[in-house]
Amino acid sequence: MRQTIAGVIVVTRGAKGSMALDTDGTIVYEAGFPVATQDATGAGDVFRGGFAYGLVQGWPIHMVLRFANAAAAISVTRHGAIDGAPRR
Q1: Mean pLDDT in order along the chain per 10 residues (88 residues)
Q2: 3-state class percentages of the chain: helix first, strand second, coil last, to nearest 5
Q3: What are phi and psi of 45, to 5 degrees?
Q4: Please, what sign has the CA dihedral across residues 32, 38, 44, 48?
Q5: I need a labelling partner for 59 at 20 to 30 A (CA). Which of 9, 41, 53, 68 fits?
Q6: Are 79 and 42 in contact (CB under 8 A)?
């Protein structure tokens, strides 16, 4: 049975980027950024932080996903969860 929820559903797809089911039922895809991965530790947390930042800024969902993808892509090019996290 399908249920209606209020909010956006997001799926991260690693190097392939991310996708979201927006509140209006639209599915939005954003490609990942090709980078040389050093350490993926913390990439999901960085993605979620970038996603939350974009939502708070009031950006459209495609921009939110792109920003979060970019933040996660930067993080995997560095070693460590804390040291790998980019600054705004």
Answers
A1: 76 94 91 92 93 95 96 91 77
A2: 45, 15, 45
A3: -65, -40
A4: negative
A5: 41
A6: no
* Closest listed residue to residue 19, CA positions, set 31, 29, 9, 34: 29
Dist CA 50 CA 63 (whole Å): 11
Bridge partners (DSSP) of residue 53 are none
**In sequence order, which residues have a C-beta less than 8 Å from that of residue 28 and are 6 or more positions away?**
19, 20, 22, 61, 62, 65
Per-residue pLDDT at 10: 95
Which token pair is 25?
């039922």
Distance (Å, whole) CA 10 – CA 21: 7
Show which residues are catalytic: 45
